[in-house]
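Hey, quick one: can you model this chain's 3D structure?
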Amino acid sequence: MNPRIVILAAVFMVGAAAGAWFFNQPGASSAELRRATVLPVRNELPAFTALSHGGEVVDASTFQGQWDLVFFGFTHCPDICPLTLQLLGEVRSELANAGADPLPRIVLVSVDPERDTPEVLARYVGHFGEENLGITGELEEIRKLTDALGVFFEKVSVAEDTYTVDHSAVVLAVDPEGRPRALFSTPHKAEDLMNDLPILMAQR
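Sure thing. Here's the predicted structure for all 204 residues.
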């Protein structure tokens, strides 16, 4: 593994532990958001059709019935994607340890469906905890979702027959009605998520 990823992953793990400490301190339940930007208009997700990492059909209704933390990335991403997903997984685990209920589901929507088959996504999302969801599908279907949410991504050639994908690094909180409720912009910090997620999920 790239030494840089190992070092940054360790930093994120320490941050998640610090977030757990923060969550249990007096006053940590204050209803003041630290990082989340609450979206003023709660529109439902657009109509689209894709596949889960298990091969099941995914559409807007998949986001109903639970809170979701949605991140747009890809499995060949060298740093931002694995580190963000690891951070989200650590935060979810610490929220569970702190007795938080409900717990959000972590969702990775691939912006590289050319390489990210359901089988590839299944192996990848499993590294970051249980009950995660990976979504892939036809590029035009993924763009229906990203365009409606204002999420940028673009395929970029880096060498002959080699490419990467530039993309936004926001994390979207989607409520149980399937409506984007808030977004977390970078830099993502465990203590901010630990503070803000219980506040958001307590709201209706």
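One thing worth noting: The domain at 3-202 is CATH 3.40.30.10 (Glutaredoxin).
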